[in-house]
Amino acid sequence: MMKICHPLDLCSEPPAFVRSCGGSSVLVGHNTLMEFNLSGYPFPGWSEARDRRTVAEAILPALDRILPSDEWVLQAEVQQLTREERMLLFEREQLTSTMAAREDGVHVLLNRAQDTCVFINDEEHLLIQTYHPGGLEDLKRAREVALADQQRFLKHLPVAFNKKAGMLFSDPYKSGEGVWVAALVYLPGIMQTYRNYDLADSMSELGILCLPALSHTKNEKGDMYWLCSPTTQDLGDDATYDAFFRTIHELCDREEEARHDIMRNTLSLHFLNNEMDSAFATLTKKKSLSYRDLLHAFSMLRIGLAIGKFTTDTPVQKVHQLIARAYTEALPTYLQLARNGRTRKERRALRASIIKSLINDELRIHTHSIEEIS
Amino acid sequence: MAEHFFPEELSGDIEKFIREMITESFGQNNDEEGENRTEAYELTECPSCHYKLADFRQTGLLGCPDCYKAFAAEFEGDSEENATSVDTPDQANQELSIAEQRERLERMLRYAVQRENYEEAARLRDQIKSLSS
Prior knowledge:
A: alpha+beta; 8-stranded antiparallel β-sheet; B: disordered N terminus
């Protein structure tokens, strides 16, 4: 098992999910997660290095047969990676925190398009995470594709399976189909309208796991969230997914309504206008910029571009690409490794300078008053 | 753990709350023989990976696929529910009898307590109460 490319080389392109994060659509994209364990081996959390290596040796040839190996640009045992490289992959959501901390027998594979990550010996023996752009219908199709892939693996590997419980996992409440879908949603309208709204809390009541996207601590909020389908144990597979798809659909409708309401309500529009002005000043004037401030300011920039507060002569597609690139070039570990930002102060200054040049030189954004947009 | 995580009624003695909640939901067991039985049950071990049921109770995670068989009694309720075929979430609830609903809620309560999600646990306890009344 060898490292094919240096993780820093991956940074010439943002990860696939970030590439679709430049616009203002509500359902930005989605990913499928397929997990399983091999029978006869302890789960990774309870296993020893020897067991993990045996599991990896069994999975890798099967993976080669099912997913073409020439596609992988990164194929490494995690212990081959330095601490900074692990952090870099973690910040790009291409390595989990569990894997980053574990040693022997833990492997990560990443394809050329950076839309498929394979994790061996993460929480379960195998996790394949595939990102897809597109809307709700594509989300349903993606699940079917993942289920078909799962069948191919079942032919090659002795997967831990039980007729009653389905796929067996270290967390028994996850047992079932073994395929999950997660929708990536951008909700600035809802977050602006309901200031103290706890999305994670309300989703949790529906059994849906909600994780902020692009952020790595609780305080970083960019109005983007991953919403992961619930366990299928209580309702069965199809009913669970129907309920999940309905929830995502409803959430998208509410976000659209919230955006319209803001435009109709003078007070809300004034409030949003102030936020957008302040965000623009943050992006173009500040000499030191934290990642947290950047996430919020970019969210306001994107919604501002959508409602006409900001305009640019740059083609829309190019704008989306530039914003996506800026998200990844502003990541702390990227600044540390690629731009030599050794201290936090240096990294913040570098981030501010990168973003300022993006807004002023590449995007060339013009701002408009509230009277012009309302 | 942050204080706001817990319901207001909890102000302070969390252990007492959990004890009361479990007692209310599952009944008190002061019988010494019963306690010994429970202790022996907790020490049940998976023959393949030597993971103990007590470990599962503590972490909420299992050691290997064979643990499902070794600790089958722990998951019996789940298997029966999994066999239930339903079309919609509403239908699922209608199809469950009161006893089944209670069993399901109790299982969710145990899980919530394991995960230290006391807010959810309190909500489930109230639901169990309302089923009983």
